[in-house]
Every structure is written in C-alpha cells, then in structure tokens.
Design goal:
Shape: elongated
Strand content: 5-15%
Radius of gyration: 23 Å
Distance between the termini: 77 Å
Number of strands: 2
Number of helices: 1
Largest sheet: 2 strands, parallel
Strand order of the largest sheet: 1-2
Structural class: mainly alpha
Oligomer: single chain
Order of helices and strands: EHE
Length: 67
C-alpha cells in the first residue's frame, strides 16, 4: 500500500465582524397593557443589541396601527 501525502491547510482566522440585526416587536391591540408590552419588547431588544459585542442595529422604528 502506498503512502499518500496529506497537506494541512490552516484555517484563516475569522475577522471580528459585527452582525447587523433587526428586532421585530408586535402587539395585537392598542390597549394600554399591550402598549406596555410593546415598550418592554423594544427595551429588551435594544438592550440586548447594545450590550452585545457581536451585534449592531439601527434605531429605525416603524409604527402601524390596524383598526
């Protein structure tokens, strides 16, 4: 049996790139309790993104109310 030559190619180091993310927050009505829930969702996602070293996002908020 013949020996085969194996050449080891080292992996390239990953660049420290941040991942751009978008959060999707939603409630089903415009009642006060639902609006508070929406505020908490927005706060939670903003904090999560801002506290992360691997994520970034923009602060674009679109509001649509269906009646």
């Amino acid at each position: 049996m013949s020996k085969k030559n194996v050449r080891l190619i080292p992996a390239k180091p990953k660049e420290n790139k941040k991942l751009r993310v978008a959060a999707y927050c939603r409630v089903s009505t415009s009642r006060p309790a639902q609006m508070r829930s929406l505020e908490l969702q927005i706060y939670t996602y903003e904090k999560l993104i801002m506290d992360s070293n691997d994520l970034y996002g923009t602060n674009n908020i679109t509001k649509r109310i269906n009646k």
